[in-house]
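@channel sequence for tomorrow's demo:
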Amino acid sequence: MRLSFHEVKNKIAKLVPKDIDYSVDLEAATVAIITSQPDRFGSGSGLTGEIAKEIKRRVVIRPDKKIMMSEEESVGHIKSIIPEDAGVNDIYFDPCFSEVILTCDDPGTAVGRRGENINKLRDKIGWIVKVERTPSLRSKTVVDIRGFRKTLAEERRKLLRDFGRNIFRPKLSGSSWARLTALGSYREVGRACHLITTNESRVMIDVGANIADTANHLPFFNAPEALPLEKIDAVVLTHAHLDHAGMLPLLFKYGYKGPVYCTPPTRDMMLILQSDYLKVAGMEGKSPPYEMEHVREAMKHVIDVNWKETTDITPDIKMTMTNSGHIIGSSACHFHIGEGKHNLVFSGDQKYEKSWLFDAANSKFPRCETLVLESTYGAQGDFQPSRLEATSELQEMIKRTIGRNGKMILPVFAVGRSQEVMIAIDELFRNGEMEPCTVYLDGMIQEATAIHASHPEYLTRDLRNAILKNDENNPFSAPWFRTVQGREMRESILLDPTPCIVLATSGMLTGGPVMTYFRHWSANERNALCFVGYQAEGSIGRRLQKGFSDIQMFYEGETINLEVNCEYITIDGFSGHSDRKQLLDFVDQLNPKPHAIVCHHGDYRKCSELGRALREKYNVRSYSPKNLETIRLF
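structure tokens (generated this afternoon):
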């Protein structure tokens, strides 16, 4: 039974003793109880737990402002109560949630035995105290977002309240139904965008760009189902790549004002990717479809969702995110629609294999009547080597290239593939098979790596432990990795005859700093070019894969012709996408099986061949719709 906000407050009033001072507010779907007596509510097994059980919503207890010290006074008490041995490095205040976050070298010492230090500090300053381990690499993006959120605390609180009132609005009359509309990435790769429409709400999943196709760059925002954009209830992002989140700021430019749900790593990664998208467009003399102010506006509306946390996002839709194994924070999204009438799962871009960075994509869902499945490598014959095979192939190419005094260029996506390649190179240098050489990281790679270090809970256990301990086993802190600091350093690398490896963005040779190295080094037979990620149709990377050695490219304001004589290969095993066998294995593990599977994020042949195989093997309905087509779910 769905409760209105008025009914929620009435139920809480019946449970809270009359002598407790409190008020009730909304933080999107979360019910916040603000009180000057937080100790009276206890933990999950106390009064707070009773309230949550009664209203069937997540409940948080927030301190009233009148018992909270100023930030300046609080810092003084933090320094006096938290032991110096804890190594407090940063203190972040978030007035929106009445929280203070301490990043420490030794969180255990900061917390104290049975939490005595934190409890004492909380009672003294009134703020909710949280402790985190200081990341091994400092991310400017994470610091900037925390500062941005603090500056806009009052505005964010109002937004969260408005989002909550929309979620708790009264139920509409009439029978319930749901549809799925394809707004992008159907029979194509790029500009991922889907719309769930029910009798009560509309939710957009992913808002991507088609980076390699300027003629079909945007999702179909002008489709009747999507308009008016300001009436969409929520946006959900599966991950941060531009083909899934690159046009989110444009949505706000066009009038959207609602919430954006994603994991914290997705939040951080999409900020640097969208910012870089604007930067690269400016360098190439192009006019991007939005500006930095729209990026900031979108960031203001983000609601963090951790994996396995179920949250209401509209009056009739609950959502749970789980690991999809693609990039850090990438998620499969489970939607529970109409109080259980239908369960819809979006696989997102996924990898159903454990990698150096991530566990294999989650395949355990409570129910799944309809599955929307990526099909990037879904055709017959789409086979990828394992991570171990790919690592071995990469290491052999490095030894071959450096052995002939060559330079090796790896066009990489800043997020995911860069870090996987770094780990493979680190392993090669550590095992003593060859003398280490300098590995230059150009573009956003170092900052993307720092974001990985800031969210170790989203990585494999072994990598998480290495990062948290920050010992000699932490691959991201190895001495052979050097970050390229600007044009002057890049030019000195070009002039240096010493063999080296360069990891640089963009991953498809569609722009970015990699173009400088490609322009200067590709004609030399001693050098090598290695692709470790997907090359979209129309990109220079795809043309090279097709065998073209004479390339026309736009470089520093002019079009030049380039003869490519260097060795170049593609190593598919580093892909963040499942191959055909992995996609079939993923569906095989779903229990119970979905009634229908919708294939997207692949060309027509890949979508249709995967759909046919799924239909024949599992006796399910399969669809490979075109963009703008709609499927009724129930």
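heads up for whoever presents: The first helix runs from residue 5 to 15.
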